[in-house]
Task: structure prediction
Amino acid sequence: MIEVNSLKIEELNIFNKCNEAQLLHYFEPKEGVFIAESPKVIERALNSGYEPISMLLEKGHVQTECKDIIARLEKDYDIPIYLASPEILINLTGYELTRGALCAMRRKPLREASMLCEGATKIVVLEDVVNPTNIGSIVRNAAALGVDAVLFTKGCADPLYRRALRVSMGTALQVPWTFLNNEGSEYVDELKSWGFTTISMALVEDTLPISDKRLYKNEKTAIILGTEGDGLRKETISNSDYTVCIPMKNGVDSLNVASASAIAIWSLVNG
Result:
């Protein structure tokens, strides 16, 4: 363990100066880095086999919240653990939400979507969801409500971005996920070729109510959710097997995509 009196040292640039794009390409052409925040998220990352690089910790947590994590790191890994005072760490963006612990970790290679979906019967597909908070919330919903895998189009925010990972409470480290290779809406046909019945959640005419019995008779289901503003592409909706709308009341036109995901997943996965 190394005590530091300033964040302005090269060894701490990974926590203090690198943005998400720089972290993503940190070891290019190999997989990059992500930052796990809080003891709970760090523990989930270690349990899921992610390799730590270094840790930045508030001194007061050495014998309290992070005691077990430190013992595990010292036993299984040869990495530096930097200790700093709260006064120093408060200068880190978002520090107040980290509960005094940051750990830089290596990303794992992404799996091909076809391989990830082998054996899966219930998956969620996110199309161009760019808000990291919504990404984190949806992944957490998927984990809590029994989804087998989550697929992202290339226009989505990365689920290992700091905010997304923090909001997901580390469940993005547990639920299998990957990015789709196809551009546009071609992925819908690919999902069908893998045996999935595709269900688009959209505010359009000629939709089925979420209680329709036809939605619950399929061996493999893919729930597709779109970006916060525009929703799903027209091509995605037209290519899907079913289009479903959650009924609204009191003049409300729609739900936030994260809230909609919870209702859709609960109904279509556990209904």
Remarks:
- The two ends are 50 Å apart (CA to CA).
- The chain has eleven helices and twelve strands.
- The first strand starts at residue 2 and ends at 3.
